[in-house]
Amino acid sequence: MTRLSEVDRHRALGLLQAGLPISEVSLRMNVNRTTIFRLRQRLNKTDTVSDRPRSGRPRCTTQRQDRNLVRNHVNDRFLSASASSGQIRGRNNQRISANTVRRRLSTSGLRARRPYIGPILTQRHRHQRKLTLWAQEHAAWDRIQWRSVVFSDESRFCIDHADGRVRVWRRSGERYPVDCVREHDRWGRASLMMWGAISYNDRIGPVFFHNRRAINAQTYVQDVLQAHVVPYTAMYGNIVFQQDNARAHTARYTQQFLEQSNVQVLQWPALSPDLNPIEHLWDYLQRRLDCQDHQPQNAEDLENSLGRPWNAIPRHFLQTLVSSMGRRCAAALEAQGGHTHY
């Protein structure tokens, strides 16, 4: 027997008022005759046929257990819902499901999101980011001082890479069909290393390295510093050069060359890519590369595909990146030298 909706209840009452017997109405509505009899009784007693308020199914967890769930996931942000469901029992010592845990966490404002992937920061690294560089020396720099800095970095680009931003529209059970799978080579096929530098109003480079081996100090000095950085600083003067702490940058050979060339170098804390504005430029270039109609097939095509957007970077974009240094310093101080949203 089907349960009568509110519309069908009024229809059944209308048939009764038309003079049909209860047995005939029950046959037409496909319900038991007792249902029609009680429906008429409820109308006579309460003047309504709507359902009365019900308490609903009792929750399988108490409020105290809900607080414990939330506390466990706040203390361990990477604790899975399935693991948490096995640690806590509900009312009457009953098991709770992972979906119940997700609903309780969602009610408290916790959602499962992809974590930010950052470098491993030890206490020494956090101390350097917070005190040695930013708090004591550069937190009070104004925009004019930051405009005299040239920010540099290297980044590796591959012909094929796994972009975590890509989404696929599919139905349930359509995870593995060919048109729903994004194939890529784990090793990225051909790749190259790209060096570049930016200032408030200009860009330097790019320099491409097709050799898969790491850049050594001699190559870095000859192809980057001597060919690009030194001429730029000699032309404009009063320039501060920024580089990270890669081995080729901190080598004695490199340091001696910079000192002999009178290039002023900005001290930089280890493992601090979030404080370097040029990192956003690599993401910008990768997006432009992904939007091309014809994807590069070899290292030479990849070099051309990166060189064109590099030379076409809008000046206002460079100015926006460099102008963010004050906010980056403030974010590093607020995070006590930890990870920032940059």
Index terms:
342 residues, alpha/beta, Arc Repressor Mutant, subunit A, Nucleotidyltransferase, domain 5, 3 domains, five-stranded mixed sheet, 9% strand, elongated
Instruction: Let me know the average pLDDT.
Output: 82
Taking pLDDT < 50 over at least 5 consecutive residues as the criterion, the unreliable ranges are: none
| Helicity level | 40-55%
Strand coverage percent: 5-15%
User: What is the count of distinct domains?
Assistant: 3
CATH topology of the largest domain: Nucleotidyltransferase, domain 5
What is the N-to-C order of secondary-structure elements (H for helix, E for strand)?
HHHHHHHHEEEHEHHEHHHH
Give the strand order of the largest sheet, numbering strands 1, 2, ... along the chain.
Answer: 3-2-1-4-5
Q: Which superfamily, in CATH terms, is the homologous superfamily of the largest domain?
A: Ribonuclease H-like superfamily/Ribonuclease H
Name the overall outline.
elongated
- What does the largest sheet look like? 5 strands, mixed
Give the radius of gyration.
33 Å
Q: For this structure, what is the CATH class of the largest domain?
A: Alpha Beta
Tell me what the CATH architecture of the largest domain is. 2-Layer Sandwich
Number of helices: 15
- SS-derived structural category: alpha/beta
Note the gap between the termini: 62 Å
**Topology, number of strands:** 5
Domain Transposase Tc1-like: 66-138
Domain Tc1-like transposase DDE: 149-301
Pfam families: DDE_3 (PF13358), HTH_29 (PF13551), HTH_Tnp_Tc3_2 (PF01498)
InterPro entries: Homeodomain-like_sf, RNaseH_sf, Tc1-like_DDE_dom, Transpos_IS630-like, Transposase_5, Transposase_Tc1-like
